Amino acid sequence: MWVLYVVFAWILSQVAANSDENTIRLYAKSLTTRESIDIGSISVDEKSKAQFISSEKSFGEGEFCVGTADVAHHECFAVASGPSIATGVFVVQLDQLKHIGSISLQNDASTSSRVAVKSAKVVPAPNLKPSTKPPKPQPEIRRVKQTTTDSTGATVEVEVEVEEEPKSWIQKNWMYVVPPLLILFVVLGDDDKK
């Protein structure tokens, strides 16, 4: 029974040691032969220090697709020739939780380091609920009395419900707009007569 406790404690210590750093494995897949070659791994610790561990495998001539299965949607994040993979700089972007969120490959001969660490910029979240128009007013229902003739020929007064669309501002207030305009046109007269 104590063996299980020791094994469990060892597993927990390994998990705790590995949780302090992010490690991703990189590979290069030939575009012509589809052969996959292990490039190495990148480890980033909690202090944002990165280390590249190369597998020291040689790349032949031709184009390769560089990728990783450890970061989502990065199965092929760069296409490069064999020599540029061996000398390229891997740029790792960390998110707010210091996890690897994105990776890219740059050809920069001026740096001696194979890994550059950058923090991802925080951008404002998009407005997923834009302002909506107010709901269209429902038509008003009025009771109107109508006179109709029934099947016997007699006229009958019937009360019917009629839906009315709400009126616009100009429909409601035309009497305050039209008469002053008519008076203005009459008073100003025609300028051509003078």
From TrEMBL:
Keywords: Signal. Residues 1-17 form the signal peptide. Residues 125-152 are annotated as: Disordered. This is ER membrane protein complex subunit 10.
